[in-house]
């Protein structure tokens, strides 16, 4: 990216998975050269509010997705980041003044975090806390949701693994 003096942004906003153009832009300057790297879109107040509302809806869908669906999405994101890492490093160098080695390190580290998050989506983990019912323990995520609590006295210390519909995660309750 060289010194760009175009009136329009090279890219637009993405709101709810769709490209949204804007009429206003701002200049992104190189911190080392003080030249224009590119122009970026400026969202209107309405576009910003719409983006937040759409993000809230997307979170509801994410929360209700299965661990396998989440892992698939995260692995796809990691694949896209890997494919575009050279482009991302170049943008980071130009926009932040970072050294190429530092930018590459950050991309590599970020990819590691995304892969780790993908691997953790199907892991059953949690902390067992004592409930207010004597002899009962439960996962902390479900403490506020009485419908998630269950008792299985015949299973004793073996406990029971069950799916909590509210959280779409595996939860456990021990007697």
Report a brief summary of the structure.
The protein is an alpha+beta fold and 175 residues long. The chain has helices at residues 45-64, 67-83, 85-96, 100-120; strands at residues 13-15, 18-20, 25-29, 36-41, 129-130, 137-138, 160-164, 169-174.
Structure notes:
Helix content is 40%, strand content 18%. The chain is of the alpha+beta class and 175 residues long. It has three domains: 1-64, no CATH class; 65-123, no CATH class; 129-174, no CATH class. The strands form three sheets. A four-stranded antiparallel β-sheet has the order 5-6-8-7, with no helix packed on it. Strands 1-2 form a two-stranded antiparallel ribbon. A hairpin with a 2-residue loop joins strand 1 and strand 2. Helix 3 (85-96) crosses helix 4. Mean pLDDT is 76; it is low at 1-6 and 142-175.
By helix and strand content, what is the structural category?
alpha+beta
Strand order of the largest sheet: 5-6-8-7
Strand count: 8
Note the main sheet: 4 strands, antiparallel
Secondary-structure element pattern, one letter each:
EEEEHHHHEEEE
Number of helices: 4
The share of residues in helices is 40-55%
Report the portion of residues in β strands.
15-25%
What is Rg?
A: 23 Å
> Based on CA inertia axes, which overall geometry fits?
extended
| Mean pLDDT over the residues | 76
User: Low-confidence parts lasting 5 or more residues at pLDDT below 50?
Assistant: 1-6, 142-175
**Total of domains:** 3
Cα separation of the termini: 63 Å
Oligomeric state of the chains? single chain
